[in-house]
Structure formats: C-alpha cells, structure tokens
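hiii, so i know i said id send this last week but things got crazy w the move. better late than never?? heres the sequnce for the chain we talked about at the cafe, plus the structure i predicted for it. fair warning i was half asleep when i ran it
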Amino acid sequence: MSAIINSHNTKLLTQTETPAKTCNCRNPMLCPLNNNCLASSIVYEAQIHSPNQNIPTKHYIGLSGGPFKQRYNNHMTSLRNENHSKDTVLSKYVWSLKRQNIEYFIKWRIIKHSNTFRRDSDICNLCLIEKYEVLIARDKHLLNKRNELISKCRHHPPIL
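okay and structure toks below
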C-alpha cells in the first residue's frame, strides 16, 4: 500500500503542466494573430490597408466564440470565393477593391477576451463587448453597420 501511495505522490509532484497551444499554423511566421490564432471568445479587429494613398484604412470589428482560426477561415473563404462575396461587410468591401484591381492587405488583432453566454447571469459579455467596441469606434472608416447593435446573441442557447 505504501508503494502505491508513494508512486502516486511522486507522479503528482513530478507532473509538469504543458502550456496550452496558442497556434497551430504550418508556418508560424504567417499566423494572422501573431501566434495566437487558437484564442477563443475574442473580439477582433481587421484593418484593411491599401498602398494606394487615395484609399483610407478601413476597420472591421468582429467576434469569435470558438477558436479564431475557424472564424478566420470563414473570412478567407468569403474573400477568395466570389459566391460568398456578400457573406460579411468585410467581404463586400474587399470584393469591391478586387473588382477595381486595388491591392490591399489585412492586419488582424485581438481587441478583448471575454466569455460567451452564461446562464447564471443571462448575459453574453462577448456580444456586449463587440457592440460596445462598434459604438465607441467613432471612426468614419468603420465597415460595421450600426444596425448590428440590435442583433440577437448567437451564443444564447435555444429556448425549448
């Protein structure tokens, strides 16, 4: 019995925690979020730059309840496939640049981390933070529309 307890104690004391993976990109240098693409429950910003001096930098604010990489892949599908060109405001804008043969670059960054819907508080902080960030962005170059502020939370479980 003492051998079992000693081996159990040794196992617990020598266990090292492996840090959670933050990126699984094949080439970490090309990670959209600086090696943090597996971050979940975030509000993010996409900045669309163009080397053309006549076109201002536009901003898009979005959220991702799951890993950002899934949301990023959905954005990239809508930016590559013209059949999905009307999926988001971001894709509409990028496709308008593509149709005019204007070069562009997109830079992604995390604005805030939060949690999704919680039954005990009946609030989705993630959706609230996204709406707040859209509200306080007084930049006239924001792609988000103000009518997004009244949209229903996607993280709220369905009522049975």
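btw The beta strands are 40-49, 58-67, 105-113. thought thatd interest u
miss u guys!!
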